[in-house]
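cron nightly-structures :: item 1 of 1
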Amino acid sequence: MGKITEGEIVSFIGQNIQKFHKARLESLLKLRLDLVLKRKNPYLFKAKNIATAQDLVESVLDAYLSSQEEGIFGGFLEELAIFICGKVFNGRKSSAEGIDLELEKDNVKYIVTIKSGPNWGNSRQISKMREDFLKAKRVLRTNARTANIVAVNGCCYGIDDKPDKGDYFKLCGQRFWTFISGDENLYTKIIEPLGFQARIKNDQFMKEYSKVINKFTIEFAKNYCSSAGEILWNKLVKFNSGKRTNLDAEW
């Protein structure tokens, strides 16, 4: 078992959190209004009684960006977990399909898939994860003498007090960070360094965000508002959900 210092963790986060901020900003700058409107539910925004173009644009854009940021930040946390585990348990990025991390400790080989939080997938996605675990185990047993292979679904935040799922373990929050580091307090130690230059980066993001809101609001009002200023919901729904061709499927 190796060691990792808080300084090494702070240094890694400081260097790599910039990738998150850069990707977050790039995701914003490459957006088009038509793309955002196609991805979100117009019925929901009508039900919320949104009446102005700017309010609708902000709601749609915020919902879209939130899901984008979750994915981007999840990738960063995965890199952080692999880095820490590499220092402590010689963990490494896995080449197996659907597996993110491999490590050995106490004569047990662990294969780990890393997710952001505990509620990450539906039943079909969880079944796919189980299939990936089985495939990885078969390959590892063919290529090595390791008989004891344990599958782990690691979640970077959240709580699941029933981690034993039968064919795999689900370790969330503190349990996960302790598992890959041996440090029961690591899950709290990493929170402060994540704020490195956060205010500066967020100010830059909000400057560009304001520009996008203004640009999208003008475009939306032009295409989806009447001359009296009312939102043309029928036109918006047709754009979002209307048939693109005259070819109808036989039902």
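cron nightly-structures :: done
The chain is about 55% helix and 10% strand.
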